[in-house]
Amino acid sequence: MFEKYDLIVVGGGHAGCEAAHAAATMGSRVLLITMNMGVIAQMSCNPAMGGVAKGQIVREIDALGGMSGIVSDLSTIQFRMLNKSKGPAMWSPRSQNDRMLFAQKWREALEKNPNVDLWQDMVNGIVVEKNKIVGVKTSMGHEIKSKSVVLTSGTFLNGVIHVGEKQFGGGRAGERASTGITEDLIKLGFEAGRMKTGTPPRVDGRSLNYSLMEEQKGDESPGKFSFSNTPAVKGQRSCHITYTNENVHDILRTGFDQSPMFNGRIQGIGPRYCPSIEDKIDRFAERNRHQIFVEPEGWTTIEVYVNGFSTSLPEEVQFKAIREIKGFEKAKMFRPGYAIEYDYFPPLQLSATLETKPVENLYFAGQINGTTGYEEAACQGLMAGINAHLKNNHREPFVLNRSQAYIGVLIDDLVHKGTDEPYRMFTSRAEYRILLRQDNADTRLTELSHGLGLASEERVEEVRRKDVALQKVLTGLKKEKLAPEKINPILISLDSAEIKEKSTVQQLIKRPEISLIGLQDQLNDHLTFLQDTDPETIEQADILTKYGNYIQKEEAMAQKLKNLEEQIIPNSLDYSQLSSLSSEAREKLSAIKPQTLGQASRISGVSPADLSVLMVYLKR
Question: Is the C-alpha dihedral spanning 446, 448, 452, 453 positive or negative?
């Protein structure tokens, strides 16, 4: 019934979809097995993509030939560029999405890929021979062979859902948990743990009084994620902001004794940076209100996501409390919030390609690695799918370093530092964030993707044309000079110091209060080198000019890192024989087995002194 596949992907969430699509696009025969084909690429939590640091990841996925950016653009109902008041390293795109349309567009993308087969079933075991995976077993009694497997199990592995004192097995509301895989992996020597996450109630938008809330509109000129020719959203839907209050908090406290978090029934560790509402009330008792984002779930649905009100309290407590929120006085609840705990596998058991160390050709991606978020899952799936294909075809692995991409930062953090709480990406995790901006993801990564067989020739040519246009603008900035009588009135209006002699445009836009687009609006006839140049290229030239010194410093730091990364550590090195290493360093290095000095330097417990010992040893 089943052929032998190059790759089996277990799970049809964000990680699984990217893994299957990437490997299939590169030429692998792929089977995607999911428990419910009706919820492929389901947005299980909030109906949004991107945000701070996460938006950068989506643009990187797109530049690498992944689909998350394209699917997001095709299902966007609102788009905003966050943090525009801050430096460009912090600018982060975010889209509000139509939940059902998002899943539909992802399924269409998979079905259009001729190398992807789909099968609805539960995988309840893996088949391993001589520490190498050779296939999977399913609940319908099938044993399906493959050269490699990517596990993207999300929150389904032995998942347990909690609502107050009620608890029942499930990987997501209305869907059963997955069993069998964890037990097989533990038998093979894997270490497992438990994590938890939660989701807020959904309500009937017709029952809300939006006039009592703050409206949050999208950008006037909305952008998009993909560097391809996807359309920008038109006619956006607004979100709204409201707040909890002391009455809400008092009602919620009445249910704390029935909260699985407080009475100890949930043992898993939850996300520190996305706490439940009961967590917020308990940890920040001095605050008398917390922000609530009221987010529509699509163009046509009346269902609304209550972002900021994640909870696992009893339904009646949730309902009573939510009606005390301004604008929610007559709210009707569609479904209550809940907490879910599930199995994960500490990611120190992975190599930088996301292949597991105990079992060859087995890859983990997404929440199974201890991460949280669609974007974090999707980029891991993409990288696992790429590397599974490359290994099957005896090609060099594809690993991004910390100066190349946020994706590189994320995976490097996971496999060398590990995580004991749900890992979420932040701009603060990246040392080179001025290099890793959202606007330049295509110039950083598209050529690499094309070399893999993912990004099309058209995508590469577009990046090359963009670079030519950018260089034209940068050259014009150096050559074009403006006389005092032309520019001083503009400088005065911006409270900027006047000039006494001609100055290049490059010198002028280094001032933080002056933007190149702003100058173009007022001096278009004089800045002829900007004619027929798109706004994104003009903005990028502005950034490169203003932040040139910072960019050069980060590039120098990145070169130092590269030098460390090029110093290979033999896999056969016996750290126990290096008596000059600290005992903790010997233990960590023996367990993780870093491939380079750069990787060793980022392992928790390996000190600069330990690194010096290694450097001396390797030179000998």
Answer: positive
**Strand (E) positions, 297-399?**
303-307, 333-335, 338-344, 362-364
Q: How far apart are CA 525 and CA 319, in angstroms?
A: 61
CB-count burial class (<10 Å; 0-12, 13-18, 19+) for 142: middle
Assessment of whether the complete model's pTM goes beyond 0.85: yes
**Alpha-carbon distance 348 to 356, whole Å?**
9
- Which residues, in sequence order, are CB contacts of 461 under 8 Å at separation 6+? none
Crossing angle of the two packed helices 14-25 and 374-392, in degrees rounded to 10? 30
SS3 31: strand
The DSSP bridge pattern shows strands 132-138 and 116-120 to be unpaired
For 372-388, what is each residue's pLDDT tens digit?
A: 999 999 999 999 999 99
Question: Cβ–Cβ contacts within 10 Å for residue 601, how many?
Answer: 19
Q: What is the rounded CA–CA span in Å between residue 151 and residue 385?
A: 10
Please report where in the chains the tokens 């939510």 appear, as a residue.
Answer: 322
Q: Which of 12, 67, 40, 35 is nearest to 375 (CA)?
A: 67
Give the C-alpha separation, 333 to 580, whole Å. Answer: 63
Residue stretches of the chain with pLDDT short of 50:
none
Residue 565: helix, strand or coil by DSSP?
Answer: helix
Instruction: Based on DSSP, count helices (H) and strands (E) in the chain, helices before strands.
Output: 20, 22
DSSP for 172-229? BTTBPPB-SHHHHHHHTT---EEEEEEE--EEEGGG--GGGSEEE---SS---S-SSS
Element (H, E) at 482: strand 481-482
What is the SS3 assignment for 501? coil
At residue 253, what are phi and psi to the nearest 5 degrees? Answer: -65, -30
Instruction: Say what angle helices 457-479 and 441-452 make with each other, to 10 degrees.
Output: 150
Give the pLDDT of residue 127: 98
Check: CB of residue 203 under 8 Å from CB of residue 352: no
222 phi-psi bin (left φ>0, alpha ψ -120 to 50, beta other): beta
Residues 157, 176: Cα–Cα separation, whole Å: 10
**CA of 384: how far to CAs of 91, 355, 365, 402, in Å?**
28, 7, 7, 17
Structure tokens at 2: 């089943």
φ, ψ (nearest 5 deg) of residue 347: -75, 0
Q: What is the pLDDT of residue 268?
A: 64
